[in-house]
């Protein structure tokens, strides 16, 4: 019997979700024996198929079952056959909110051998950790529509920023910055326009920052930040930002660090009051679904973030090392075309071969 059995809920979801999740699980299984681990997985059929069959996005009974797991491993949700937002809000955001995933952790890292569209950058130039707020901002679902269908229709979408919500994510970001060699935190917002929310974020960063005198603090408006992500990625170490800005800049981060197929994330509840959820940054990619073309690396790296969160650092490093080796090998092979399963097999083989 393994020394540690992780009770893991799996939500493959839609589009390429099931394809990439299968490879993530393959790599976890390969890592398990070396690290005296086992995964007790339960797969949940949630997403477009279930919605079409039953009209359900996330039944309360399933949410309650998910709560009883140590972690959730998710592929992606969203399908062109379902109205936009039904699954994204009804499943993904519902889980992030219900399980208080207030830290959406999104590392942006250029691995050696990976091609970036940026000129003259080395891997050490792109190494940041975006700490995206995960439960508030314009995602909160507040607002509405009046005079619908008339020429005077008004749609509002409020951004919710609570002192409690901002402070807890800012504290997490400072603590993360303090553990990193450069000890630098950049707040990204738009306080020249979003003055109420921006001022709250600024004030909280100033106040919490007083407790972290060894962390240097910087501020960028989000528009300028997008420019510097491309022109001077070296500027960034830890970035803390609101839910929507964080969504946008992490797709950009993915693009500068080698593509969306490599970008990993964790939806973290740091107190472990609820299971945290791990998923690639990308979506269900309907344009390539079912063709074995999706890169599962983002999902595999999300599994490594999960292992870290579960306190299984040895296994996490082994998975990361296997990915790093595979990425280097890809560079040497002249990026030979491989299927989703072939990439998963190669990484699983490397991870099984490591101590
Ligand atoms: N966390 C999630 O579940 C999540 C995240 C983003 C988008 N979505 C949903 O996914 C659907 C599609 O959204 P989208 O097209 O804006 O974003 P997307 O990330 O699914 O796709 C954007 C582009 O990136 C490519 N791509 C994505 N993942 C890839 C991978 N692993 N390997 C290779 N190429 C990859 C796609 O083929 C597409 O061309 C929508 O329903 C959206 O709401 C879900
Ligand atoms: C699908 C959508 C709700 C989601 C988000 O905006 O958070 C996605 O884009 C992401 O980045 O995880
Ligand atoms: Mg996104």
Descriptive key words:
amino-acid biosynthesis; magnesium ion binding; 41% helix; 10-stranded mixed β-sheet; binds magnesium ion; oxidoreductase; two-stranded antiparallel ribbon; alpha/beta; Rossmann fold; 2 domains; leucine biosynthesis; Isopropylmalate Dehydrogenase; binds 3-isopropylmalic acid; 3-isopropylmalate dehydrogenase activity
Topology:
Layout: E1 4-13, H1 17-31, E2 37-43, H2 48-54, H3 60-67, E3 71-76, H4 86-98, E4 103-109, E5 127-133, E6 143-146, E7 154-157, H5 163-179, E8 184-189, H6 195-209, E9 216-221, H7 222-231, E10 238-241, H8 243-256, E11 264-268, E12 276-280, H9 297-309, H10 313-332, H11 340-352
Helix pairs in contact: 1-9, 1-11, 5-6, 7-8, 9-10, 10-11
């Amino acid at each position: 019997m393994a020394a540690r059995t992780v009770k893991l809920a799996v939500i493959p979801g839609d589009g390429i979700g099931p394809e990439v999740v299968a490879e993530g699980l393959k790599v976890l299984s390969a890592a398990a024996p070396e690290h005296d681990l086992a995964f007790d997985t339960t797969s949940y059929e949630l997403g477009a198929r279930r919605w079409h069959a039953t009209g359900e996005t996330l039944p309360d009974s399933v949410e309650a079952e998910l709560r009883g797991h140590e972690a959730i491993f998710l592929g992606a949700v969203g399908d062109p056959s379902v109205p936009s937002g039904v699954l994204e809000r009804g499943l993904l955001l519902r889980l992030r909110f219900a399980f208080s995933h207030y830290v959406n952790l999104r590392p942006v890292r250029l691995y050696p051998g990976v091609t970036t569209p940026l000129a003259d950058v080395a891997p050490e130039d792109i190494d940041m950790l975006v700490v995206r707020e995960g439960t508030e901002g314009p995602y909160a679902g507040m607002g509405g529509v009046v005079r619908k269908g008339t020429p005077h229709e008004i749609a509002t979408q409020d951004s919710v920023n609570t002192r409690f919500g901002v402070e807890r994510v800012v504290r997490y970001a400072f603590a993360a910055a303090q553990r990193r060699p450069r000890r630098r935190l950049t707040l990204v917002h738009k306080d020249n326009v979003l003055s109420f929310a921006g001022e709250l974020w600024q004030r909280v960063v100033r106040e919490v920052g007083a407790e972290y005198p060894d962390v240097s603090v910087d501020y960028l408006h989000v528009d300028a930040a997008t420019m510097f992500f491309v022109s001077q990625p070296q500027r960034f170490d830890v970035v803390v930002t609101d839910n929507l800005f964080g969504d946008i800049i992490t797709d950009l981060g993915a693009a500068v660090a080698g593509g969306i197929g490599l970008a990993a994330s964790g939806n973290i509840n740091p107190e472990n009051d609820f299971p945290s959820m791990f998923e690639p940054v990308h979506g269900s990619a309907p344009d390539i679904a079912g063709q074995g073309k999706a890169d599962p690396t983002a999902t595999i790296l999300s599994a490594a973030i999960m292992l870290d969160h579960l306190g299984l650092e040895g296994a996490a490093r082994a998975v990361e090392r296997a990915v790093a080796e595979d990425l280097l090998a890809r560079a040497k092979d002249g990026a030979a075309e491989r299927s989703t399963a072939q990439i998963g097999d190669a990484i699983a083989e490397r991870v099984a071969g490591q101590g």
